[in-house]
Amino acid sequence: MVGLKPSDVPPPLGVKMASAGAAACIADIITFPLDTAKVRLQIQGEQKAVEGIRYRGVFGTISTMIRTEGPKSLYNGLVAGLQRQLCFASIRIGLYDNVKNFYTGGKDNAGVLVRILAGCTTGAMAVSFAQPTDVVKVRFQAQMNLNGVARRYNGTIQAYKHIFQNEGLRGLWKGTLPNITRNALVNCTELVTYDLIKEAILKHNLLSDNLPCHFVSAFGAGFVTTVIASPVDVVKTRYMNSPPGQYKSAINCAWTMLTKEGPTAFYKGFVPSFLRLGSWNVVMFVSFEQIKRAMMVTKKRIEAPN
């Protein structure tokens, strides 16, 4: 078997939440440049263009950012991103099994609708709690580190303070509705697809419950999630990054995009979105399964009598 063996005892809630948060942070650190490139492509056409700078494709965007702003620009907003994952992933992923069991009354073999409901529930709960970290992350990723270009924020704490002072609590929770919509879609698609693919692989004995199985399941979940969630993701990014008054609401933002840029605007940054979500899912789910199992091994050793 490749990797650690599954635990004989189901992991408790604390183990699942801790391992989900840790795995999501690992995935963010590895894939963050792709996420930053995705944000820059999504807001292109909305922000005033800086002379001589235009982004073309995910790797072209990364190359342009390194050339014009330096390699550190690829990790703009990483601190807020890690804060977001610690709050966000631990809730939406860590609570998923427990919420699913709650809806089924503890019965095994939950149906697809129950899994979707559980994914939507934990996704909405996570956004409601962690939204300010997402707002700060997106704004850091959107700002350019260029001479002569004014920076909106100089640090994570300063960004939280500035948004609160200038836009109030509503500014910190700006874009909550499209983000809840997006993450309900992402969470239920991501977790349910991973759940179903993994279950089918194990049921038909195609692979055992190890790293290759987790890799295939996570890759499939990443692709399906990108297709479904990309339009909402673009609207969310633009709306959260917009200055006060630019859009009346998330729906107004979507309508403005449709009328000014056409329907293809909703799939801007699709390739980096897929590269990011696909790779993020692979790293996160593989790490999650292994960290969870490692924590259960450690827990068993600690609790074992000397």
TrEMBL record:
Its main location: mitochondrion. It comes from Seriola lalandi dorsalis. This is Dicarboxylate carrier UCP2. Antiporter that exports dicarboxylate intermediates of the Krebs cycle in exchange for phosphate plus a proton across the inner membrane of mitochondria, a process driven by mitochondrial motive force with an overall impact on glycolysis, glutaminolysis and glutathione-dependent redox balance. Continuous export of oxaloacetate and related four-carbon dicarboxylates from mitochondrial matrix into the cytosol negatively regulates the oxidation of acetyl-CoA substrates via the Krebs cycle, lowering the ATP/ADP ratio and reactive oxygen species (ROS) production. Gene3D superfamilies: Mitochondrial carrier domain. Keywords: Membrane, Mitochondrion, Mitochondrion inner membrane, Repeat, Transmembrane, Transmembrane helix, Transport. Belongs to the mitochondrial carrier (TC 2.A.29) family. One of its GO terms (cellular component) is mitochondrial inner membrane. Solcar repeats lie at residues 11-102, 110-200, 209-294.
